[in-house]
Amino acid sequence: MSPRPRPEVLTIAPYRSGESRVPGVERVIKLSSNEGAFGPPPTAIAACAAAAAGLHRYPDGSAAALRQAIANRFGLDPERIVCGAGSDDLIYQLALIYGGHGTELLMSRHGFAMYEIAGRYAGCTIVQAPERRLTTDVDALLAAVTIATRLVFIANPNNPTGTLIDRDALLHLRRRLPPDVLLVLDAAYAEYVARADYEAGAALVEAGDNTVMLRTFSKMWGLGGARLGWAYAPPAIVDAMNRIRSPFNVSVPAAAAGIAALSEPGWVERCAGHNARARTALAVRLAAVGLPITPSEANFILVDLGSPERAAAADASLRRRGLIVRAVGGYGLPAHLRVTIGTNEEVELVAAAFEAFARNNSVADG
Hints:
This protein is an alpha/beta fold. Helix content is about 40%, strand content about 15%. The relative contact order is 0.17.
């Protein structure tokens, strides 16, 4: 008899990352993974290269220098910060610590896929609350809470829809949730948000002992390949995470790159400004040819093609031009495509490709 995995493991659909190649196409532009339009900051590239000379040494297991740099940048307490190999690493940790058999993990209908994967791995039952206009519905989440609920995960802004809920809605949710339910606010795209009513989560973390904020270096900071994320959490939760995390879960080059990226002058302002302008310009052009856009606060837009068949045809049409976007049927959105905001050239190419598709493939034609 061969070894058998736990039954819940076989219920997990493997995470599908964004593709980066199209057979037979020489120049490929990847707009499928919400990576930063301009790559890593120059200082981060230099710091990563310089760190190579020390690769024979184990990293600082506590990532003390990185945690202090994060704390300095965002005005936080370094003792409340836990770093990891991307925020995915931290999602797994929280699900394993607070989930388990007989518990429920609650998320929105179109929430980030890793919440379900980590929850199932931990043995949780996954509960998905309905959304309102592709936006997290706080009242629907609250209505779905049971005595078994232990974790609520919210991406804000949400991936793959780009929508967000404001500060008042978050406060309402936290006040109404039972105190023993952990609220996890995944703010991977926080640096792109310009709305004054937005709260990434730090204030809720500091106001109690049952909320965690997750952040990443993979988007704005262009360090997706380094795998670097962090959590801001109450002391008791930090203690629990430090007990189970891998002892060296942040590599030497990743830590060096992260520290340097945080100090790159004007980086966030430049990238966020470009993203806002390019996102608006792309949305306007697509709307002009009858392709509705879900209002987004992140570095991507969600395009409604009207039907799964038309979405697949548009995806194929873009791929023939070397443009890879993200089909999101796995998120329950088979009629949509998610498009990362790239450079000005990349935005122009993808806009022109959608315009050509729309001219040749009307809704009536399918």
